[in-house]
Give the backbone structure.
Amino acid sequence: MNIAILSGKGGTGKTTVSTNLAMTLGVSYVDCDVEEPNGFIFLNPSILKSEDVFVEFPVIDNKKCVLCGACAKVCQFNSLAKAGKEIVVFQKLCHDCGACKLVCKTGALSYSKRSIGKLETGISKDIICHRGILNVGEPMAVPVIRNLLGGLSKEDHFIDCPPGTSCNVVTSLKYADAAILVTEPSEFGLHDLKMAVELVKIYNIPYGIIINKDDGTENMVKRYCTENKISLLGTIPYSMEAAALYSKGIMLCDDEFHREIFINTAEKIKEAFAW
Ligand code: SF4
Ligand code: SF4
């Protein structure tokens, strides 16, 4: 089973939950937050494999090009423009859809490849860890995420999704069998959690909520879960100790008190997702 861990809002503790659950349960970890993949800081795996992710972009042969402009007209992403006596290619805007080649009748248009990021696989205490890394300045994370998740084995994985509810999260959810939404008990947390819930509902997969930095009261997120019949899978208390461990890069599950929390949460997850 692939379990996506997401949060409508950044900074809720999604990576903390993902890495600690992976380590507690001995399940593979996948960092899909390719613009800022920081799960490896905590898991510190030995890297076993690294490979580039390539995308294609059009190249124009000016000797064959008759400047008909059909390629620029069909491109929905403004990656091609007719400027004077040439077709200008904006490589980073290209979505690799192939439409321009279909409409070029002179054979002037071909494709070349460029690297936009890389995939890494490592191992940490017998846990297989994967991550995608988008190169600085690249605008499109989706191809890296697609390559990362498309290459996973049939084994269980915790997928640490990008924050928010953008197309990067949508792409990640396509590979998930269940979802855990991590939030914090604040107005912002609840607002963005609701958007994440609406997104997950579209996929018709089982899901539940974990509250990080829980204040121990019957707060707004708990009331939301009760009112909407959403499983509350676990709560991680707000504490200076957790913050101190985090700031030193120490896994919470290495601490006895927090380890117990993740063990109990893992049991609830198994039950809720019939896993
Ligand atoms: S492949 Fe698609 S996105 Fe890229 S330039 Fe051609 S039409 Fe535009
Ligand atoms: S469709 Fe082909 S021939 Fe026409 S402008 Fe584009 S590259 Fe040139």
Q: What stands out?
A: The chain has two domains: 2-53+117-272, 55-114. The longest helix spans residues 187-203.
